[in-house]
């Protein structure tokens, strides 16, 4: 394969690279932190709201908000890539923030569980449009040489803010109650995210076009030039071993995240933990995940993608099994740290795989297809975990997901080829 273009190659007035685009890159990191915060406002409070306020006794019913969120976000991810190619990245980002504005208000005023489910449909649209677009825009700006590092910063910002907000809302709920005070943070995040996106963020689609003009012809002609959306979906989902393995691993990753979001707080509450301690555990996992991605994104640029993803999925499986086996706070805290570390190894690296393989001409749509599969894992995980928990108990549901997660690591080890151009 021909060597990739330099990280900061000039193309007319467009320059690719982290240093030359640092101001816009940093702004997009801040915007994605607000995106993560919108999700973090729910992580501690909503499972407890389902149990203590709406008195939903069936786990499957209690997790319907995650099903609604995951299914909507997955579909929106798919269209976000296509829309950002057709209309530009910035309009899609702004539209995502407009959809976010009523979400915290619906959660505050919801008179029935159906309102909470509808709020999560809107949240899924918000997350699909905004998070997908910030990923695409950062890939556009940095070029090929720093892709893993860029994804590390992007995901670290989003999940670091998610963790901080989960901890903050847990503390607020412990002091003032489950509603309305914890959701005031969401109101501030949505207003600030919309303002920054509309007034300060600049369009990056021309950066992708500039990279496409410099992009070498790959050895596999199926990866070059313009493809239809159907061809891109088939390549990303099935025919390319790296892209499809990444899609499968991403789906299982978010399947176990749905478990951590919806089932873990209920397990901890059943063992008598306070809301404050549940909030701490809910924050610990995404905090390690968020901070760790700065290192692991950079690391994948040095050692390659495949082995980091394999090890991360296996470590997640071990961590989830430890949650199932544990009965006390110290064991669960250790498991949350391990789960965060494993997820940090996987999350930015999977996105970097998509960026490595997909041609710039159709990369945004490939990201959309990958994120369709990945975030579909929320819906699959909520349905699977809820059904198993209702039939066999919380612990059986957790053990099952632990096995599935480890199996995904084995699939990557056997099927994925290394995608990083330096290796």
From TrEMBL:
Subcellular location: Cell membrane
Organism: Kitasatospora atroaurantiaca
Membrane topology label: Multi-pass membrane protein
Main location: membrane
Keyword Transcription regulation: no
UniProt GO cellular component terms: plasma membrane
PROSITE patterns: MFS, SUGAR_TRANSPORT_1
Transmembrane segments: 20-39, 59-80, 92-109, 115-136, 156-177, 183-201, 282-299, 311-332, 338-360, 398-417
GO-annotated molecular function: transmembrane transporter activity
Entry protein name: Putative MFS family arabinose efflux permease
Statement: the UniProt record of this protein carries the keyword Metal-binding: no
Key words of the record: Cell membrane, Membrane, Transmembrane, Transmembrane helix, Transport
One Pfam entry name: MFS_1
């Amino acid at each position: 394969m021909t060597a990739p273009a330099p990280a900061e190659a000039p193309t007319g007035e467009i320059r690719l690279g982290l240093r030359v685009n640092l101001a816009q890159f940093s702004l997009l990191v801040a915007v994605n932190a607000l995106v993560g915060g919108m999700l973090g406002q729910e992580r501690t409070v909503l499972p407890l709201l389902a149990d203590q306020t709406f008195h939903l006794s069936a786990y499957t019913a209690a997790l319907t908000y995650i099903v609604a969120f995951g299914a909507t976000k997955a579909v929106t991810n798919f269209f976000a890539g296509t829309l950002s190619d057709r209309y530009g990245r910035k309009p899609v980002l702004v539209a995502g923030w407009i959809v976010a504005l009523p979400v915290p208000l619906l959660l505050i005023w919801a008179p029935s569980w159906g309102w909470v489910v509808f709020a999560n449909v809107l949240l899924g649209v918000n997350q699909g449009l905004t998070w997908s677009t910030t990923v695409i825009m950062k890939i556009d700006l940095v070029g090929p040489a720093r892709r893993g590092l860029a994804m590390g910063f992007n995901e670290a910002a989003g999940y670091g803010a998610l963790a901080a907000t989960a901890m903050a809302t847990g503390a607020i709920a412990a002091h003032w109650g489950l509603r309305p005070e914890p959701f005031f943070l969401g109101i501030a995040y949505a207003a600030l995210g919309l303002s920054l996106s509309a007034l300060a963020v600049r369009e990056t689609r021309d950066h992708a076009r500039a990279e496409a003009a410099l992009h070498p012809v790959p050895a596999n002609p199926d990866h070059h030039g313009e493809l239809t959306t159907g061809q891109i979906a088939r390549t990303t989902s099935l025919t390319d071993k790296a892209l499809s393995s990444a899609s499968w691993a991403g789906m299982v990753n978010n399947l176990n995240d749905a478990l951590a979001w919806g089932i873990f707080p209920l397990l901890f509450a059943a063992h008598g933990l306070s809301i404050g301690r549940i909030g701490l555990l809910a924050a610990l996992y995404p905090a390690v995940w968020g901070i760790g991605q700065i290192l692991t994104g950079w690391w994948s640029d040095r050692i390659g993608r495949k082995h980091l993803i394999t090890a991360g999925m296996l470590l997640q499986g071990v961590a989830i099994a430890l949650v199932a086996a544990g009965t006390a706070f110290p064991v669960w805290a250790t498991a949350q740290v391990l789960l965060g570390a494993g997820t940090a190894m996987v999350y930015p690296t999977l996105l970097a795989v998509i960026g490595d393989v997909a041609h710039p001409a159709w990369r945004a749509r490939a990201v959309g297809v990958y994120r369709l599969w990945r975030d579909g894992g929320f819906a699959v995980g909520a349905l699977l975990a809820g059904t198993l928990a209702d039939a066999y108990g919380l612990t059986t549901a957790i053990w099952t997901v632990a096995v599935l997660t480890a199996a995904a690591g084995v699939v990557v080890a056997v099927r994925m080829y290394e995608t990083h151009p330096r290796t």
